[in-house]
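Appendix B. Chain record.
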Amino acid sequence: QAQVVESGGGLVQTGGSLRLSCAVSGLTFSGLFMGWFRQAPGKEREFVASINRSGDRVDYRDSAKGRFTISRDNAKNTLYLQMNSLKPEDTAVYYCAADPAAFVNRTPAIWDYWGQGTQVTVSS
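Structure tokens predicted for this chain:
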């Protein structure tokens, strides 16, 4: 049974940092493209970052470039999102997503597997 579990969210002040983790089980992690999405209250779920199977190609939304870093450890079946210089507009529930073929697709509906989400709150 596939499981995708996020952790690492919390409350941080503007300019602070958080590191999100996503543990995957029941799937062949190294065969999956992985991504991070977020959803703020009253808004649609939006793409944040994605990474290919080997970890040597990444994609970011414009507002995340230079502040967020996506990475993966295939030996640990774990995906990460290092978030620096956080802003109040980054406040959202952050979701980890996995799919066999979705790397270049920023559309949430395309991704097959999802975690339950972890709350990130940035205070001003």
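Further analysis of this model is presented in Appendix C.
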